[in-house]
Design brief:
Helix content is 28%, strand content 10%. It contains four helices and two strands; from the N terminus they run H-H-H-H-E-E. It has a two-stranded antiparallel ribbon with strand order 1-2.
């Protein structure tokens, strides 16, 4: 995802295209292929030099933090364990990267080891 001056330059060069195409060209697409419009618009505003508060100080959720990375998760009803975008972004992981899952029962740990592109 482009940010800062790179984002502004790319968006400016594509200004004759629909907004969705500009956002996609700037990399604002989730792993499922869904367009991340809110993130795109937020990045544009920040690139212009405005400070965007992370949560509204008024309204029904006043005083709450909203969705924050808590480093907690739980197993879903279908058996899946979701790590989430906040954590993968923090680790610098990219969509399409592959990992080997290692289970360590003695410590109750799950390790993700990156698989190199040439590794079987």
């Amino acid at each position: 995802m482009l940010v800062g001056q790179a984002l502004l330059a790319k968006a400016r060069s594509l200004s004759n295209r629909p907004e969705d195409q500009i956002a996609r060209a700037c990399g604002y697409v989730g792993p499922s292929g869904r367009l991340l419009k809110k993130s795109f618009y937020r990045a544009l505003v920040e690139a212009k030099g405005y400070v965007v508060p992370s949560a509204s100080p008024s309204g029904a959720g006043a005083g709450s933090k909203g969705r924050q990375a808590e480093f907690r998760t739980r197993v879903h009803g279908n058996g899946n364990l979701l790590i989430g975008h906040a954590y993968t972004r923090r680790m610098g992981l990219e969509p399409g990267q592959e990992f080997r899952i290692e289970l360590h029962k003695e410590t109750g740990s799950i390790w993700l080891s990156p698989i190199e592109p040439d590794e079987p």
